[in-house]
Amino acid sequence: MKKVLFATTALIATTGMAAAEISFGGFGRFGLIYNDGADDETSIEQRFRLNITGTATADNGLEFGARARIETNDGADSDVRAAEFNVESGGFRLDVGNTSDVIDSGDVLDYYGYGVGLTALVETSTNFALPASGISGDGDVPATIKLRYTAGDFTVAASVTDDRDVTSITVASTAGTATANTATTVSREEWQIGFGYNFGNYNVGVAFGNEDVTTTTLVNGAAAATSTNVDNDFWALGFGGEIGAFAFTLLVADTDANPDTAYGVSAKYDVGAATEIRFAYSDTGAAGDDTDAYGIGFRHSLGGGVSLQGGVGEVAGNTVADLGVRFDF
User: Fold this and answer.
1) What's the CA gap between 282 and 278, in Å, rounded?
2) What is the CATH number of the domain that holds 230?
3) Is there a domain that residue 162 lies in?
4) 79-123 confidence digits (pLDDT tens)
5) H or E element: which one contains 79?
């Protein structure tokens, strides 16, 4: 009966809008996760994500779309995320709002590679300090504008992210009964541009960008005002391909924030029609020990969009592992 009522309501709501559609999709996962560097070494992992997507086509052929994401996780990290919007025509696509930038979107290169485990314990970008703006959860959501053009096997994309000012105010007691009101404002701007090309079973891509962060601190309004600025240039180069049952990705990246160039590699091998083995390695390019990460895992399809996934590895000197089930719908 509920399904009938829902279908009837949807039909009434869309009467006269034959070109408009709404769809639902997402995934759920649950299992166990282990980290010998955490206070609670073994814990339950659970995530449910529902994407609500609406599309409409104008009389002139322009295709409009919007998507909102509802996500729940283990603990208090659950939210309804701000929407992202897009417009498409021919090879052009414009994304606006709570959306990914050039690097995070995968438009020109694969930044994450073949992640290991149920929760992507290790990826080619694990622990990278490379700025990348993805879809944000609740709170102050940065606005991103991304324009992409695809012609055949060639893709070019550019994005701009402008974080709203985030202000934190603390009131601290000083000598006697006096107090000090401290206000900190952080403003961040980021731009990226990238190019990608597919040739046969292989692909190559490169992206460049800059991150400008200004932090201003005021004490008692104006006294002892301080301001710092970080101007950070960065780039990333990716290469990947497939050779029969074997697939791989390579990532090289550099940023002014790290002393060395970062790199990562990932691969997967199809053992059979339902099972694949995955491997990933990442070196962040940061100073100090234990800056690399590596892991090996598997994915086994149970059919119907359900799979058993798990992995084990080392991240920042800690042994990590997970095992569980994921189902896509």
Assistant:
1) 14
2) 2.40.160.10
3) yes
4) 777 889 999 999 999 999 989 999 999 999 999 999 999 999 999
5) strand 79-89
